[in-house]
Structures
1.
Amino acid sequence: MADFGRDPLDLEIDDLGISFGARNFRYRLHIEGPGVVAVTGPSGAGKSTLFHLLAGFETPERGRIVLNGVDVTHLPPGRRPLTYVFQEHNLFAHLSLFDNVALGISPALRLDAAARAEVSAAFEAVGLAGFERRKPADLSGGEKQRAAFARALLRKRPLLLLDEPFASLDERLRREMGDLVRSMQRSAAMIVMMITHDRSEIMTIADRVVGSTMAPLPSRDPPQSGQRPAKSRIKRRPASNSTDFVKNLTASAYQIVLCNTS
């Protein structure tokens, strides 16, 4: 398998495109270095479609996905160096929580002593020590989310995709899960991309913000005389929790780096 462990992390989405009937989606984005990247924008503007393309669940009609210098555009989902955490957690009802989490190390659940110790450490990291023998049906929504994060930690992939991971949780649990995501990202030094519509989550969790819009992408044609070429950049969160950062999260103010054009 290709070596994806290059430091620093680098993800490039180069003019990626896919069509669904009359709707055409195109994306350009470059993320350099680890951190939490909030992906926001109106419903239907292609945020989940982007994640499906990154994960290999959809096949692009144009463009490339390059992670740490390796073109992964046409790799099957199982060979891509990423973890996708869905809203519904994807826990198997017939397995104990320990086995559900251990799938992150071995899909066949063949674990030696060192692997079992890693699983136990993951339970400690997400605050679920003592829950190993429980079944998913015995857990709250927040506990299920913690289990999904524990499994993601064990996979040790450089890219983690979270599709509205806290949508079904109350405000207190959303804050707790947000703190957990930040802790996971820092300990694993990975890129976390998180779809969210919650501005408080963006303020407290995200290092960077990217937005999707229904507008056409900027042209890549050479600029005419006197014009500057259009650039797509990630808007970074200021060092302080400035309220201006939240106020600027409007379609006209923040940098648009993911685009949908029909």
2.
Amino acid sequence: MSGNELGIYVYEINTELKKQLKKPHQYLWKYYAEDRLLNLLDSSELFFTNVPKFTDNFEGLLPAKARNSFIRWCIDNGSSPTKAAQEAIHYENTRNNFYVSSWHVNDYESYLMWKAYANESRGYAIRTTFERIKTAFNSFSGIINGGGIEYVNYADAHINFGNVFNSVSTKDMPYSDESEFRLFFWKEYQQNKTHPIIEGGIKIPVDLSVLVECVYINPLIDQPSAKVQEALLKHEIKWTSSLIRVQPTYV
């Protein structure tokens, strides 16, 4: 929210994730390749990806059953079938105005997340908490929302299409291992309309001393690179070794 704490938008997320997000000290993780981490540390700006740029082509689209229900609703309210189909496309195009920063909800590191998002030997993971992330955007004059993802079977799921946040807060069930919490920047808020857009997304100023509790280094390396150590030292951010063991240790 403008000049204040993060406005949390909570969709009807799965029960376990909802329980986790009610804990102020719940850990949230973001996994980075080294160049992306350095970009964050050098700029003090968090990158938000435009929803259509995600690799999942269904991001922000209505599941088939929900789309059919939307079209039927439009027809029941006076639209022709052709116009109703166009209105469904227009509704789904609202995803173009959403930008997202994705975080993994977990009490511990995730080997799956290391492999998926920081799998080269220079990968890193930021650990923060729900409490920290809520107050890390105090210097930003626009509006940021946050909420957990609802994982559904896209073949037969129905979602409430009365709120445009719902479709960008829903993902197909195969992604459920990501246990994702999202930060949302919605371009249609009056306070956000003039914020500059860059290729593939936007950047939002963030207080790194608040956001980042510590940085974990890839399980395959012993210490951060010299560049990363220098950037962390500049912000007085501590780093720690991964607790994941990739080689057996014998005593």
3.
Amino acid sequence: MKKGILISVLLALSTTQFLVAQSPQLSNEWLSNHAQVINTELPSNKDMQLLKKEVGNKRIVFLGEATHEDGATFKVRTKIVEFLTEEMDFDVVLFEAGMFDLLQANKEFQKTGKSESIKKALWGFWKTQQLQSFYSFIEQRKAAGNNIEFAGFDCKFSSSYGFDNNNYSRFWETFFQEKNSAILKNENFTNYMAVWKDIESGYQQTGMKGGLAKLRYKMSNKEKHSFRNLSIWMADELRKLGENKLTQLLRSNDEGIIAYSKTRLWKLILNKKSFLPINNRRDELMADNLRHLLSEALVLLLTMENMVCLEKVKGVSLL
């Protein structure tokens, strides 16, 4: 049975539960009884030995961070990743980053063994100085012939793999050209691709216009309904080809586009809480992506910025 690791908000392990930072139960007394003191300047394998007891034979481990770009946390987390892969046979890293981005980046990494593709696919806060040892480690592991793979579970693009050069629409055109070229002439396919190329045209703009295009693509309710029907048709065609992973990716990205189309800049300026329903929908989509990955029996090292979507994933042992 394969196993995995999740990286999340709080770096705290317990044999019975994983408590998020917002939980009222997470008191100083609880931390005193459950926290393990680690030398953040020079963490050693000795510091990591508790993981063998705490993790045991679980398939998934969640790791976390108090906030983005916390250098000390990144440094220790890299050491934990090294220990879990070298000592406990974890070998897939799943980041809270674009499913499509990491799909492309992992292909490049497996071919070249260079970590630059993985770094490129991630959000900016994963590119700190303290994480350089992580990127060096995965290159060394690959060079030594030890398997390590990467995937993402976000419904949004996180890098130029998704945003630039019409990469996403070109991916589908190339895929179907190779798998079933007759679909390229189908009206549903051309209409679906027309929507995505319109979305991508916004991504190519610079400055404020480009930034806003990455945040949301406006759709009327009628357009959302039409686009969702086209997305369902595309998913059915992918299932016929046995492409379950790509089906999940497509539906997640499309539903993300629909969700973010509700974003209105003036509402965000007046009331930041207006963004909460959209973020909640994103969490639901990420949770669904996690369920899919678990059903595929992947070994997971999941890296997350919050625990909301994890709480919605049933059947996962939280440490």
